[in-house]
Design goal:
CATH architecture of the largest domain in chain A: 3-Layer(aba) Sandwich
Strand content of chain A: 25-35%
Shape of chain A: elongated
CATH class of the largest domain in chain B: Alpha Beta
CATH topology of the largest domain in chain A: Rossmann fold
Largest interface: A-B, 51 and 57 residues
Radius of gyration of chain B: 18 Å
CATH architecture of the largest domain in chain B: 3-Layer(aba) Sandwich
CATH superfamily of the largest domain in chain B: Succinyl-CoA synthetase domains
Largest sheet of chain B: 7 strands, mixed
Order of helices and strands of chain A: EHEHEEHEEEEEEHHEEEHHEEHEHEHEHH
Strand content of chain B: 15-25%
CATH class of the largest domain in chain A: Alpha Beta
Helix content of chain A: 25-40%
Order of helices and strands of chain B: EHEEEHEHEHEEEEHEHEHEHEH
Largest sheet of chain A: 7 strands, antiparallel
Number of helices of chain B: 9
Structural class of chain A: alpha+beta
Structural class of chain B: alpha/beta
CATH topology of the largest domain in chain B: Rossmann fold
Strand order of the largest sheet of chain B: 3-4-2-1-5-6-7
Shape of chain B: globular
Number of helices of chain A: 12
Oligomer: heterodimer
Number of domains of chain B: 2
Number of domains of chain A: 3
Distance between the termini of chain B: 30 Å
Number of strands of chain A: 18
Chain lengths: 378, 290
């Protein structure tokens, strides 16, 4: 889960990393009032996305009037699909230098990676300007590690301050199960203070249950109505723009069902997975797949391993009886419990599965195209 | 990584739970050499016909196990895996999904030179006709049949489908190595490929990959130097950018982890890249002769 700047910065403050004084506002008048208190300010769109500056979401203002005008413009923006509803009004810093600092989960080294660059800000960093320190998570990252990492860099009087920030940044990363914690830019001010002007924090989704109070301040993924229904029901559902509905078990198989639909010239309408212990949710899953506007046909693809085919099929057929959907459906059934599931399908729906998933996907693509021609696109 | 044989001694951590019990029984029926289980609260009892120990360290003293399979909920995995590492397990198979990533990194840091970690978020592995670990339908003859094709998969469901396609095309498997769908896992595609390259019973390898990460690209580097034919299918070509497709590891970020990047690297290494899993039979006939 992502955190917007205003929700991420309190983590820095609590750990003793300096950030400029700021106020969160939701209106242009609120921004003007904040600027009255803070003097020269930066007005920043609060969205869970990068490149806000390029999108026009960050503006400076020297007076409350200017802050109000800037806020009015920013509040009309949509950045990376997010309508701007909140702005952070922040006291302007006397910037001498801009750096970059981050800690992240690194799949290559299978451990935490601390990163620092003397080239902060929005400019593309030259690869050789980035210092990287692999961390043994059992040992942690201390002052000496930070000093070693910064060795040889021209940092003036800010060296110890930066080392201190890196150590604190790592501690925040560990305590809050961050996937990514980034300060860009980390600036040195006229008085040689080291200040974090921005902060990006992404929490590991698998650790949210350990940090519920903190997670309440994060920004959940922007979900469509159907996706939100899926999340509530504990079913992974992703809405797509096609017309062939997909209901399968397991992430890999569901993804592949989408691929094979595309391979045969069709467009998947969704990703929807009912695996293993989610079998009792077949009804909800089927409803969601069918409720997507414009679905013209359906592929049901079961390949039982941990999830047993006959259990999934039973759940699906119960739901089918109740809903009685009026659209063509094509089955592919294999793996644990397949024989029983195929018998069930024949007895209760009078249908046979196709020879393999390619045949099922191709038939569904053809049926969707037929329906489209026939004008049954509802 | 090791390919688990009938003589390898297997410990089940979390043996007394519902899934632990069900799959331990399936493993025993298949021939997996289960020598004990772990549950601190039920130490000293017998479950599924084998002794239950308080810890993997205790179990090691009496059973000299080689491999431990973890049927443990997400927040308990770190302690269970550290216990197995301390005990000196050669391989630890972690099936659990949704383990906090920093716990996974802690396990990886602690693993040491003697221990391999497989997973997390793997369905397990099958050495056809000898032994299986985890929750794969090893006992289903339409999915697993003894032969010479080694299979590596990040996904249990898709790996199962690929195995069924291999059998229905008239081929069989030497071993199925599930490596897991998480972004940070122990055994990589490349390491699994090396194990199958060195396995005398394997004549060809099928890689079932996914979008996300760089493991297929790394495996391609190794495949370029192999004599055995390698065939691959990469799931997720139709997936939208920036969305996690069910598996935490299956996400395309910018240009990293894309289908095109993996396809290009594999093809350049002489790997046959399949358009759909149903094409595996034809590709095997072409590369192995039928």
């Amino acid at each position: 889960m992502n955190f917007e700047e205003h929700a991420a910065k309190p983590l820095l403050t609590a750990a003793g990393i300096a950030v400029p004084e700021s106020r969160l506002a939701r209106t242009a008048d609120g921004a003007a009032k904040a600027a009255q208190d803070l003097g020269a300010v930066v007005v920043k769109a609060q969205v869970p996305a990068g490149k806000r500056g390029k999108a026009g979401g960050i503006k400076t203002a020297d007076s409350p009037e200017e802050a109000k005008a800037a806020a009015e413009k920013i509040l009309r923006l949509e950045i990376a699909g997010h309508a701007v509803e909140k702005i952070l009004v922040e006291g302007r810093s006397d910037i001498k230098r801009e750096f970059y600092a981050a800690v992240l989960n690194d799949p290559a080294t299978k451990g935490p990676l601390v990163m620092f660059s003397t080239e902060g800000g929005v400019a593309e960093k030259k690869p050789n300007s980035i210092q990287q320190a692999k961390v043994d998570i059992r040992q942690g990252f201390g002052p000496q590690d930070a000093q070693e990492m910064l060795e040889g860099l021209d940092l003036g009087g800010a060296r110890d301050g930066i080392a201190d920030v890196l150590v604190k940044l790592y501690a925040i990363y560990r305590e809050n199960d961050a996937e990514l914690l980034e300060i860009n830019p980390l600036v040195v001010t006229g008085s040689s203070g080291v200040v974090a002007l921005d902060c990006k924090f992404v929490i590991d989704d698998s650790a949210i249950k350990l940090h519920q109070e903190l997670a309440a301040t994060g920004t959940p993924d922007k979900l469509t109505e159907l996706e939100a229904r899926g999340e509530e029901a504990g079913i992974k559902y992703i809405e797509l723009d096609g017309d062939v509905g997909v209901l399968a078990n397991g992430a890999g198989l569901t993804m592949t069902t989408m691929d094979v639909i595309r391979h045969h010239g069709g467009r998947p309408a969704n990703f929807c997975e009912i695996g293993g212990e989610a079998y009792t949710k077949a009804r909800t899953a089927l409803e969601m797949v069918l409720d997507k506007p414009g679905v013209r046909s359906l592929v049901v693809n079961f390949c039982g391993a941990f999830a047993r085919c006959e259990v999934m099929m039973d759940g699906l057929l119960n739901a089918w009886d109740e809903i009685s959907p009026d659209l063509p459906v094509f089955f592919s059934v294999a793996g644990t419990g397949d024989e029983e599931a195929i018998k069930m399908l024949k007895d209760r729906l009078g249908a046979d599965p196709l020879s393999d998933m390619d045949a099922a996907c191709k038939a569904a693509v053809d049926a969707a195209q037929e329906e489209k021609k026939g004008g049954n696109g509802g | 990584m090791i390919i688990v044989r009938r003589q390898h001694r297997v410990l089940i951590q979390g043996i007394t739970g519902k899934q632990g019990t069900f799959w331990t029984e399936r493993m025993q029926e298949y021939g997996t050499n289960v020598v004990g289980g772990v549950n601190p609260k039920k130490a000293g009892t017998t479950h599924c016909g084998v002794p239950v120990y308080a810890s993997a360290v205790e179990a090691m003293k009496e059973t000299s196990f080689d491999v431990s399979v973890l049927f443990i909920p997400p927040l308990g995995v770190k302690d269970a895996a550290l216990d197995a590492i301390e005990a000196g397990a050669r391989n630890i198979c972690i099936l659990t999904e949704h383990i906090p990533v920093q716990d996974v990194m802690y396990i990886m840091a602690a693993q040491g030179a003697e221990t391999d970690i497989t997973g997390p978020n793997t369905a397990g592995s099958v050495t056809v006709g000898e032994s299986f670990m985890g929750f794969m339908p090893a006992f289903n003859e339409r999915i697993f049949n003894h032969g010479t094709v080694g299979v590596i998969s990040r996904s249990g469901s898709l790996g199962t489908l690929m195995c069924q396609n291999i059998v229905s095309a008239g081929f069989g498997q030497s071993a199925f190595l599930g490596i897991g769908g998480d972004p940070i896992i122990g055994t990589t595609t490349r390491e699994a490929l090396e194990a199958l390259d060195n396995d005398q019973g394997t004549e060809a390898v099928v890689i079932v990959g996914e979008i996300g990460g760089a493991m297929e690209e790394e495996a391609a580097e190794y495949a370029a130097g192999m004599d055995k034919p390698v065939i691959a299918f990469i799931a997720g070509g139709a997936a939208p950018v920036g969305k996690k497709m069910g598996h935490a590891g299956a996400i395309v970020v910018g240009n990293r982890g894309t289908y095109e990047s993996k396809q290009k690297a594999l093809q350049a290494a002489g790997v046959t890249v399949l358009a759909t899993p149903s094409d595996v039979g034809g590709a095997l006939k072409e590369r192995l002769g039928s």
